[in-house]
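Study this one:
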Amino acid sequence: MIYKLNRDNYRDFSALNINRLPGRAYSIPFRELSRLKKTDCLTERYKSDMVTVLSGEWDFKYYETQNVLPYEMDTERIRFDKIQVPSTWQRTGYREPVYLNTRYEFHLFPPELPKEVAVGVYRKKITVDDKTKTHIISFLGFSACLELYVNGEFCGYGEGSHNSAEFDISNMLISGENELLCVVYRWSTGTYLECQDMFRENGIFRDVLLYTYDKAYINDYEVKTRLNGGKEYDLDIDVFLEGEAAGKKVSAELFSGRKKICSDEKDADVCVKFSFSALDVKEWTAETPNVYELYLTLKDGDDTLCTVRNYTGFKHIEILGDVFKFNCEKIKFKGVNHHDSNAKTGYVMSAADIKKDLVLMKELNVNSIRTSHYPPDPMLITLADIMGFYIIDEADIETHGCGSLGKYNLYKPNFISNDRSWAPRYVDRVSRMYFRDRNHPSITMWSLGNESGGYKCQDKCYEFLKSVCPEIPVHYEGAIRTKRVGYDVISEMYTDIENVIKTAKGTRGKKYFEKPFFLCEYCHAMGVGPGALEEYWDVFYSSDKLMGGCIWEWCDHAVYHGKDDKKYKYEYTYGGDHGEEMHDKNFCVDGLVFPDRTLHTGALEMKHAYRPVRSVVSGGNTLLLTNTYRFLSTDVLTVKWELCFDCEKVKDGVIDKVIAPSATTEVTLPLGRIPSDRLVTLNIFYEDKNGAEISREQHVLCDAPAAIETGDKKVLLTESDSGYSAEFDNGKIEFSRSTGEILSYTADGTELISKTPLSGISGFLPNIYRAPSDNEEVNPIPKWNREKLAKVKAVYKGMRAESEEKEVKITAYYDMTDGKRLYYKSFIEYTVFSDGTVKVRSSLARKRYGWKELPRFGLTAELPKEFSNVKYLGRGPYENLCDFNGQSPIGLYETTVKEMHVDYIKPQDNGNHGAVRFAEFTDGNGKGLAFLGTPKFSFSAHDYTQKILCAARHREDVIHEDTTFVSIDGFVRGTGTASCGQDTLMKYRFVLDDTIEFRFAMKPIAR
């Protein structure tokens, strides 16, 4: 079949759409109500008798540039490949992936495009049995624009990648076989509105649906609920018909399960209105997602022509002064930002992918989702209706890259957003989002887009939304830096805690006074972190003005390569790994979960911060419990407690007291006398009625340090030309006079220090560095990292030995230098006792060129590879730092060195454990070495050295070897969120003004 292609629409600024149908509510029609009722929101699309899902194998031809795309295409002469729809070119081998954050892929001069733009031509043959019916084809997502041809004729054009585009192809079809041709361009003028932080991909990436209607059908509908002044609701429904309505009937039926709540039937017309008053219904909230099934049916006599389902929820949103209220309650958004992202398929999210994400979010106590930065597949929003999430539905608009247009930058009115000639394109995207998603109870705010400055085009979008949907608030963060400031709420991103506090107190500035305050992005979850999440929530709960926020972001973005992929040696790749000249490295690997949805430690930290009940010990045996649910009492939970002495349970019980929503209750527990010479912890567990843990808390009631017992016999000091040795019962420790190393440390014939260290150093060395986390390597790099602290090494300067009757002291001295300057001085003092115990004291003194802020101070050593079993009393079982430990209560844990590694896609310091009283490393026979806190330390242990970790750019670069590399630290900096946000809080930084020291002990383990 021959086609005359229009090759100019993609770069024609006036060609916003051609023959594209107006936006309408997403719905799946059925001819049989019984058949519809057998489906759910994830399957209805695929089981409808009125919808054909055209996804699957299509013919495909890729052109590197539109210059070689023929003006006249004979599809019978084209040698097509086969491609799966939905898919993207970058995940099917036609183009290499490109990751960019704030930049466009081309030099920008809006609305001009590069001279060469890649094109993909898709062909699908379909069979039509009855051409007299109405056939509408719906593309749920494509990038960047699409021209549709049918049977050799041009049908229409659309752009707006994440918005549905629909075309009526009825008059172009014939009975029997028909040919569809889709021409998709890599870029269009609309690409200027799609500069989002993500892999930039192209193709038809969501399902393609073919609706087949009779001559009359339900084309669209609108559902609105209103609180009628009391506790009852009114329900208004407008049903919009197309075709021959005369003589037909439209019915509306609302069900709760099998119980019919209300119903009515009316004569068909262009618009049929239903109103139901004073309905006694249960309200919809994210905590109580009470959805009713609304069935709208068009009949011709006894024949059903069309029936659709809507999951209806009854809600009421209002803003009173500076307080956001949902169903008259002051809610908090415990949210995440969610991109459509699959490491194998890119933009393509299956129904199973969507459900998996939302199920995980529920398990992690998330109640809100911002659909960053575009409307998702409509299945996600319907599932949110049913499962219970507050949705901030975001328009597919971001013009971040226009910040590079000279005087126009993101922090002033953005060039495009301030140009009213672009306003129709903005409104087009916002209106299509609105019409598609307007009937969902989960829609809690509309978002005008992301990081596009403002405000003139956004004003037009706001005016549109308020004209059609005044009851739903509008959020847009980009207005904060313009004179518009905000729309219905004040939105910001990555505001530091101090300024959030000022906002709550009203001391920050006039523009923050009058409206609720929402953090659409906060606590950037890149790599190890986010830190200080608990501090944010302490502040959020302190003021009704503060709405909460959405963590950036849900999942790591990366490209997966299977074992059979010979081109890439890495399982997951990120920016710069695909030969692209322009990229933003691993800034896309910034999620709470890995690409396969395995949880980061950050996801568990979020689960803890988003816990529904918070407790405080108010003295003695009294506990104050606050229920942060706004609509549920704690009778949906089982609350358990246990009292532990030195991590051994001595008492437990159940708290039966029911706490009302938003209430605080005092509970007295039968704890008895709390000893003053033990570690005493009170653990609180919150479980659902199925026994699944929702959250836990821990209170340390007594933190008495443990005594370290030592031998009281004589220790023999021997001096030689090579060094010193101290002999004790059944063992000996030897030191090198020339290097300061521990040459040997034996007990009962077992060597406790590696004799073949990979680092080349036997025994301990002072250490002030760590492999930078993403928060220490991206954006505002800490001074100590920027100025190459990694080059500073411990240089041995000398040794001194002292002998007393029951102990021997040997001290090694070090300069911390890069070979040019002296930054710090340090020593390690070893005090040896007759039972083999060695008390260690180490000091660090800052000199003229030393940095005040450091990532850590401690000692490193390599133990024998056989010492791979680890038992410790401290924070666990997950990695933790001082500002990142809510998910890791103090306990007694057993693990292995391999299991302590956290396999981040971009390697960084990991697996740290704080508040440790002891850590034991043993072999298979139970022999080994214990480290004892005086009183506590932090530690990590790996089967690779710090040097290897620092050099690694991907997880496969971390070479796991035959060693046990241990870091024992007295001081460790927190993680913060400085990769994009607040740096580590001062109270969690390691600041060295002059001199510090820390202590621990070592003791052989013989079993």
Summary: The first strand starts at residue 2 and ends at 4. The chain has a mean pLDDT of 96. The two ends are 83 Å apart (CA to CA). Residues 273 and 868 are 72 Å apart (CA to CA).
